[in-house]
Amino acid sequence: MAEISNNTESITEKITSFFKGVRLEWGKITWPSKQQVVVETLYVIIIVAVFTTMILFMDSILQWILYITHLSDITPFFMK
Question: Which of 14, 52, 60, 78 sits most deeply, having the most CB atoms within 10 A of its CB?
Fold first, then answer.
């Protein structure tokens, strides 16, 4: 029984040591400024919009090609 007790204490000590290390490292973090977060968020939104538009454009072209070659009976959305 004594070995189980010592093992439990060592686990408790390890957990305590881990969280002390986490707290120490947390203090070393340099957080970005609000302006940097806003600017980078806008970059992401713009890039997603550009790629979405490109995919829509390519899909429309491929859909139109399939329609004019009679490989598909689905009318492209821009021709409805």
Answer: 60
Domain count, the chain: 2
Q: Which residues form the domain of 22? A: 1-29
Which residues, other chains included, contact 3 with Cβ-Cβ below 8 Å and sequence gap of 6+?
none
What span, in angstroms and rounded, lies between the C-alpha atoms of 44 and 42? Answer: 5
Q: What is the pLDDT of residues 12-35, one digit of tens each?
A: 888 999 999 999 999 899 989 999
Show the low-confidence residues of the chain (pLDDT under 70): 1-9, 80
Q: How far is CA 50 from the centre of its chain?
A: 18
Residue with tokens 């980078």: 40
In terms of domains, do 50 and 17 share one? no
* Region for 70 from its dihedrals, namely left if φ exceeds 0, alpha if ψ lies in -120 to 50, beta otherwise: left
